[in-house]
Queue: 4 jobs
Job 1
Amino acid sequence: MGVVMQRTNEAHLGLGNEAGADIEGRTFQDISAGMGNDGNYVSLDREAAKVASNQIRYDVVSAIVSAELRGMHFAATDAKG
């Protein structure tokens, strides 16, 4: 693929590589899903499960943050609402 990242600051991308060394991306092919009729290895069921899992995580974190913000608002208004 020839993906090369460019530094905009010398402190960026300090991965132990020499200064100016090209960093190339790597791609992986997961064939555990099995090839579909179109030659694609994407499992729709697995991807849907990942989306559902991500939605649950988002909902939990959102509820926790909302509760924390309500508590901070309550404290900041001297418990007046």
Job 2
Amino acid sequence: MTGPLSNLKVVELGTLIAGPYCARLLAEFGAEVVKIESPGDGDPLRKWRVLHEGNSLWWYAQARNKKSVAVNLREPDGQQIVRELARGADIVVENFRPGTMERWGLGYEALSRDNPGLVMVRLSGFGQTGPYKDRPGFGAIGESMGGMRYVTGYPDRAPVRVGISIGDSLAAMFGVIGALVAVNERARTGRGQCVDVALYEAVFAMMESMLPEYSLNGYVRERSGASLPGIVPSNTYSCRDAKYVVIGANADSIFKRMMRAIGRADLVDDPSLASNDGRVARTEELDRAIEDWTSRHDLDTVLEVLEKAEVPSGRIYSIADIVADVHYQARGMLERHRLPDREIMLPGIVPKLSATPSETRWIGLRLGEHTDAVLGSLGYSGERIAGLRRRGVLG
């Protein structure tokens, strides 16, 4: 193993998105991640969304750099295997409903008896405590309860979702932050701890100024479509060729540069528009002025003018636009890998470290591919492994 986290051993328990994505981020930077999957079908994500030769294309990214071990966690012998793995691990990542790990004898109290330095990252819908802890909670529920869905969409329509499982992914990233903070604390004290991440709290943590605004004067942020309320101008505008441009000209100096670039010097010289609070009061007027200009030009012309004026702006990319973009290519964000019959592209790893860059050592592999090797490293003989497999403990 290589990479800045190659000194860390991680056991991943759980399925689908939040827990596996948390462990994936650790694996991308070199951590040795042993992913425990159920014999037979494995992680349900293996069959989600677009499939190729029976495998999810999402799986190849979500499981990259991990070792797959097929173990039945409902069997006592399977639970014992996890205990042995946890004994030598730095981090355990799990995303079962609270109480499940305890029922299997795999809760933090049990695992940390043999490994006091263990860090356990626990991702769930509502957290390990509180009146809602036993409720099932997926990312969609976390996005709704966390406040994100309420402000997403247009005011005259029902709230909509972001087009990805953002709640799960945010929780996963907070899980990684918590894990690394806990590992750093362990270096000082020698003691591990639990990292409790609730999906709804991960979403709520991203909701900017919504809480202080409400607590002070009862202001409730509502859906605003493509605009950014209270920060002007910042919106999406239509162009002559039926394409759209996103413009963020809300800094005072940038606003002035943009108004000059679109031929509205009269707005540059208006003292009431010199700062954001004055522009907010005239949001509709400014948006009309900008779209009056963008609607008379094709998108490429709009972007050329704004780039010359150093105004933050951009087109709205589809995945086809992303793949064709020279900047994505130059930054290594479009990795190419081989499947048995063709090439596949996976997203590059973020962030980029100058001295210890990350790498994709392998993409998601077949279920249980590393079972024998991992158990062998624990001292299991081939005969014992075969016996466990015959009894349905291993896949």
Job 3
Amino acid sequence: MNLAAKVLTVSDGVIHGTREDKSGQALVDRLAAAGWAVADRTAVADGVESVANAIRALADGFTGVIVTTGGTGFAPRDLTPEGTRAVLDRAAAGLAEAMRLANPDKGRLSRGTAGTVGRCIVLNTPGSTAGAIECLDAVLDVLPHALALLADEPTEH
């Protein structure tokens, strides 16, 4: 199976040029190091509609993983989970829980979600570089199997 991924940074600061997209680049680097082909990397402003529209566009005709970074906390503009839930076909609570458990201290502050859109798995990770990588690493090993199941391919289980 070809392992394909896309990275979506959700940040008003990145969009307005006042913040460097360090977490998005870190996710691209980590995915590539793990053998994933990163097919796209983009950024959108915070907000339910901007996130929902971006995920829909990224998922259209794509099979793979879409990893978001940013907008999972408690700030008023942190609406990535709401935008993600608006487009999910099915939730994947176990993935979201595993990502939160990656950091027993700050993970409890993440509202990130996970689930499927078509043949994609969508993961919300925090905007901090360390948090994004911790969350991705918490589930990276099971993603190929999950994608095979989602594609209705034969698996060993």
Job 4
Amino acid sequence: MTDTASNTTDVAGSPDPLEAPPPAFSAQDAERIAADSFGVSGTASPLVSERDQNVKIVTEDGRGFVLKIANPADDPGVIDMQTQALLHVAHTDPTLPAMRVVPTVDDGFQATLTGPDGRPSIVRMVTLLPGRTMEPDELHVDTLYSFGAACARLGRALRGFFHPSAGHPLLWNVKHALELRPLVRHIPDAARRAVIAEVLDRFELHVLPVFGDLRAQVIHNDLTSDNCLFDPQQSISGIVDFGDMAHSALICDFVSTVEALMGERLDHFESLETTAAGYASVTPFLDDEIAVLADLLLVRWSTTAVISAWRVRSYPENAAYITGWDAGVWAMLDAYRDMGLTEYQRKIREAMNAATRPERHVERPGGSIDEMVERRRHLLGSAISPLTYDRPLHLVRGRGAWLYDNEGRAYLDCYNNVPVVGHSHPRVVEAIARQAATLNTNARYLHGAALELAERLTATMPDGLDTVMLVNSGSEANDLAWRLAATVTGGTGGLVTDFAYHGVTTAIAELSPEEWPKDSTAPPNVETVPAPDGYRGRHRHEEPDWTTRYAEHVDEAIAALDGRGVRPAAMVVDSGFTSDGILTPPPTYLQDAVRRWRDAGGLFVADEVQSGFGRPGSHLWGFDVHGVVPDIVTLGKPMGNGHPVAAVITRADIVDRFSRQTEWFSTFGGNPVACEASLAVLDVIEQEGAQRNATEQGAWIRGALETLMSRHELIGDVRSLGLLIGVELVLDREAREPATAEARVVLNAMRERGVLVGTTGRHSNVLKIRPPLVITREESEVLVDTLDRVFEERNPSA
């Protein structure tokens, strides 16, 4: 199966199979072998091969096959691995245009035959695929995209495949890169030797220590344009040559694909971006893979350069073939030397950032925007919430902090809090896909992920909050919290801030004044208190003891409930007061309010759906910012980055008292897929610095917005809790009259300029800014600069 020197190079110091001459069977021998061993009768003609012997066999009815006669020095185990891999690919992805193995007449997959020179060779047969090879600079952009997708598909098809020979020593396996050092001396130019020595030193220092942590499997390791066939429309019609297969980091498969493309084309980094976009459309890259990509590319180019120089010294008669890739390889290594490490890494990073926000997407047909709006109204009903923007947005995909519409336009998402670690985070996506492909079932069976999730969640909580009840949404979580509180206290009284939102169930809608019908009064078992708005609320910052005065309203609410014969059950508070306008009172307010409620016999429920999971930056949970310990904590869909999963976390004594009266069960609450998604979110937050980034970016954005406030009179106040940020717009800073209409104009103007924000508060005059925790400084600057331009257009004199 192996056709070139590059496919058989062992690590330095091992016996070199290329020293053995190739097999020398005649065409007549090949025809006889094909008929006798594989039952295929046809005419033989030789194919180009350096060290093996490959013969095309065409039958009378036009079917084509390739008889592959291995070099007698080849490792039989490696040959068997190639055969088994082809069989595995044919089973796992039958539509992938890879060669198919032809069985022998006795139902095997190879025969061992003695050649004319008396040496034995392993012989196999595969199908002849249509098409031709193409040079990298011949490939158009769409082909690069599909090339990357094909590489990812092949990697997926090989997922789960293993063979004892997969660890065979091979210089083309990047994990053996340091074995190149004794061979670097064959590079004739001293400056170029120094570049390669630097590359290998960086690999040893920065890549090798983390290489074992990367996703790994058996990979093709050589899916270049030389090993693919293309039809006249440049669709991939064949994948050949599995001779470089090895167990290695999965990202090395992608590296081998773009190695030649980048060097042989003038659009070096653009070709990387397009090919990566195709790859990511099938298998999203992980952050740790992107982090080492620049170094792995340098190592791969260095490997080609060193092996080429080494082989030319050994086989000068074949120099033209051996050095075929040298021009492109040195184009990239010389470019790296000239631009320097920092600029080279920046270009790789920019290409990969763009690639992971690809604009290509296959979307279900929906018709025009107007048609979809009408279908939505007709099919989903008139009660559904209105669309966010005056000009409806048809989104088809997301990545990181970005969303993309059906025309490929990108929007910086600074509004949606549910994808807390970014849209389509690859670690979360992979966790969901992996578990969904394995098992998903209800919670009446044992499953380790649910237990691990509960352990990890309780480990983040104050002492005593030791019991986790898993459900599917924040509304369910708050509904269950309400049932717990009512059962344990014996009360039915609820207390919420006066424009709060906590969910959509019947019980929780009654605890969500934002959802109450217009001009309605509170349900008889619910009281509201003014949200602690120190800017334009009932009690303001400039008043002495303003937080105490807000807390005193809790006593008034308790008295009102008592007057109706209602005992307190639950005080439910969103720690960020998001629906009330994103408020950040001093911790003393909530401490005082909770104390008063508990003294009356009620429980405190901290609703962390919008303000938890690291959004505060300084703390994982919003209630920690206030220095209070809840009786019950509720979590929502950010827990799974949007996957339906939520939780109630409380004390065992509360659950025990509840269980004496009733059994509780949620069929798919805490199902294996949901739990794996949640574990992946926790992994990302803990391992990728999400809280630190929320602190840093939240502080930077707030500071930049305060600078805008000094220039734009429309901004009355800026307040934030990490990456939960409110910008209150007022018509007049003295009167502090809410600028509701103006906020709507700003909201839509931002959308037209590619940045998504929302509005909140009773008067919808507070810009609600809640980007994913992965937002970068550059993206934060886009947010602030765009907002600045919008304000300037409304007030050019600013």
